[in-house]
User: Fold this.
Amino acid sequence: MGQKIVSKNKKAFHDYHIDQIFEVGMVLSGAEVKSLRAGKANLRDGYAQLRDGEVFLHNVHISPYSFATLVSQDPLRVRKLLMHRREIRKLIGKLHEKGIALIPLKIYFIDNGKAKLELGLARGKKLYDKRAALKEKDSNREMERSLRRDD
Assistant:
């Protein structure tokens, strides 16, 4: 399955423990799809919210497409996400727990040309968790360097 990754939220893996990942569709306008194909999206401050049994994406910036003929839409508008009803029912119970959030992880295109979003059910990390993760990442990097030097 080939994917063309448009945007990744690298900060999410630093700030959160990702418990579960969902692949969801998005309701987009034609100009937004063209803008995504050009790679103009930012997931940094984005989050998803449940409202009236539906999931909505907030604070994800998709830049306006420069060649669009119609009036361009707000780049930060709230977008509806497409999920199966049983997945939404699972989320309802989990999101009421303290410290749980739905965070967008990446936007990509699948083989048939549809834009998909990877949503992560995330639990916030404490400061000492972030430090430990950085320390582990640095030690792994040093180990890789020393192995390359030995070869």
